[in-house]
Amino acid sequence: MPITEADVKKIAELAHMEIADEELRALTPQMAAIVEYVEQLNELDTSSVEPATGGLTPEGERTPASREDAARPSLGQKLALEEAPDPSHGHFRVPKVL
C-alpha cells in the first residue's frame, strides 16, 4: 500500500504537528521509503522464533532473568554532579521544556 500525502497529513495531525505543503511533498517519499524498508522484515522466516511477551511466558509466569538482580551502591550526589555542565544546589540544571 503506497504512502500518500493524505497519509502523511493524517499522521502529522495525530502527532499535533503542522506541516506546510512543501514539507508534505518532501516527507511523503521519505515516509514511503521508511515503510518500504520496514516491510522487508516480513520476508524474514520467524517460524522458529519464540514470541517475546515482555518477560512473561504465554501462561503469565516470569521468565528467568539473564543476570542477578542485586542491589549495588549508588554513584552518590557529589560524584554524579562532578561532570554536570551546570549543577545547581545539588541538582542537575536543565533548560526549560515548556
List key phrases describing it.
mainly alpha, single chain, 2 strands, flat, two-stranded antiparallel sheet
How would you sum up this structure, described in words?
The protein has 98 residues and is mainly alpha-helical. It has a domain of 39 residues. The protein is built from three helices and two strands. Helix 1 crosses helix 2.
Mean of residue pLDDT values: 88
Query: How much strand?
Result: under 5%
Helical proportion, percent range: 25-40%
Find the count of extended strands (DSSP E, 2+ residues): 2
Termini distance?
A: 38 Å
Separate helix tally: 3
In sequence order, what are the helices and strands, one letter per element?
HHHEE
Low-confidence stretches: none
Radius of gyration: 23 Å
**Widest β-sheet, arrangement of strands:** 1-2
The assigned structural class equals mainly alpha
Shape estimate: flat
Q: Characterize the largest beta sheet: strand count, sense, and whether it forms a barrel.
A: 2 strands, antiparallel
Strand and helix layout:
Layout: H1 5-14, H2 21-39, H3 77-82, E1 87-88, E2 91-92
Antiparallel strand pairs: 1-2
Short description:
By secondary structure, the chain is mainly α. Helix content is 36%, strand content 4%.
